[in-house]
Amino acid sequence: MEQLTAVLERAQQRVAVLDPIDHRGRLEHFMFDVLDPAETSKKYALIPLAPDNGPVVMPDPVTLSPLAVRQLCQRLGMPVKFKDRLEELKQAKLLSINLNTLMQHNRNSLTMIRTIKGEGFRSARAILGSQYQPLDDAELLTVAAPYLEGADVAFSQFGESSTHITAVWPDTIQDGLARGVHIANSEVGMRAITVEAVAYREHCANILPALGLGGLGDGEQGYNEGNAYYRNKNRALKGSATTSWRFIHRGDTSRLASFVEDAVNDASRQYEGVVARWRQGLTDMVLDPIGAIGDVSNQCNLTAEHVKSVLASWAETRPDFGDCRTGITNAFTHAAQKEEDPEERYSLQSAGTFALGQYRLPN
Fold it and tell me: CB within 8 A of 250, min separation 6: which ones?
C-alpha cells in the first residue's frame, strides 16, 4: 500500500518532467514530414507553417508519437489500416503526400496538439479536437484527494495512454475483502474520467471492479459499449450504473469535484453489490471451467495471450476456490496483476466482473 499523498507527489513530479504545453491551430498550417529517409523507423514530425495572417501556431517542429499519428489520420478521415499498409510497404513518402494533401484541405477545423518534452524537439503525444479540455492526472488527484480520506493506494500506474489508480480503505476489510475505488483518466483523449467501486482481496491483492466495462447488470450490451480502450469514441457526459461513473471535463473544476464526490459516495452501494455477487459465486459451480474462461475471454475481446495467462492463473488458484464462478472471476483478476499496461490490466479485471455478473453459465 502507498499513501495517496505520495502518489499525488509522483503525479506532480511527472508534470514537471514532461512539461506539457498545448497548442491550438488549424492543420492546414502544418506540414507532415518523414524524419527517416530509409522509411523504416516510422518517425514523423509536424512542421509549423506561417499562416497568411498572424503568427505560427508553434515556434518549432514537433515529433509525433504513434498515438498522435493515428489520431491525425482519424481527424483527417484516413483509415489507420491504410497508414499501416503504407508503412508495411515502406511508402512513408506516399503517406506524407496523402496526409499533407488532406491537411491542406482541412480548412477552418481547429485542432489541439498536446506536446511534452522530447529528445531535441518537443513531442506531440496527442492530436485532439479543439473542444477537448485537458485534465492532467495531478489536477484530477488534487480534486479527488478530499473524498479519499483514510484510503491507501493499492495500485497506481501512469501509462502513455491512460492512468489507473485504486484506493482502498483498510478499515473496511471483512471476510478478506476491502472496499475501494478505482479512478481512471487519460491525458491524451483515450478515455473519459471514470470512478467506480472495487473489491480488494487482501490475501492476493486482486482487484475486482464493481462495474468494470459492463457492470453486474443483465445482458452483454453494457460491456461492449463501455469498453473505452477498444471503442474510445463512446464518451458519456455523465455516469451510469451499467458502465461506471464517467465524466468528460469541460473546464469547470467545481463540476468535476461534484462528480467525484457523487461517484465516491455511490461506491459504497456498488461495493455491496459486488460482494454479494462474490459470495453467491462461491456456490455457483462451473461444469467446464476452461470452456467458461474461453467464452468470457471471447465475449470480452481478450487476446490469445490473455487467455493463456488466465488459464495459468486458474490452475494456480484453483485449490482455493474449486470450480465455482468466483474462482473463474479470481483467475481473471489474478492474471491482471501480470500485465504492465494499465489498460490491459483493467480489461482483464473487468472481464472478471463480467464473469461474475453477466456471463451465463452453460446449462
Answer: 133
Where is 138: in which H helix or E strand? helix 137-144
CB 316 within 8 A of CB 338: no
Phi, psi of 175 (to 5 degrees): 55, 35
Residue found by looking up cell 499519428 in the block: 69
Question: Where does residue 269 rank: exposed (0-12), middle (13-18), buried (19+ CB within 10 A)?
Answer: exposed
- Alpha helix positions (H), 172-300: 221-226, 253-281, 289-299
CA distances from 73 to 12, 34, 48, 90, 209 (A): 32, 15, 18, 17, 33
Condensed to tens digits (0 to 9), the pLDDT of residues 100-159 reads 999 988 776 789 999 999 888 899 999 998 888 878 899 999 999 999 999 999 999 998
Contact 142, 4 (CB under 8 A): no
pLDDT digits (tens, 9 = 90+) for 177-213: 999 999 999 999 888 888 989 999 988 889 998 875 4
Q: Is 0.85 topped by the overall pTM?
A: no
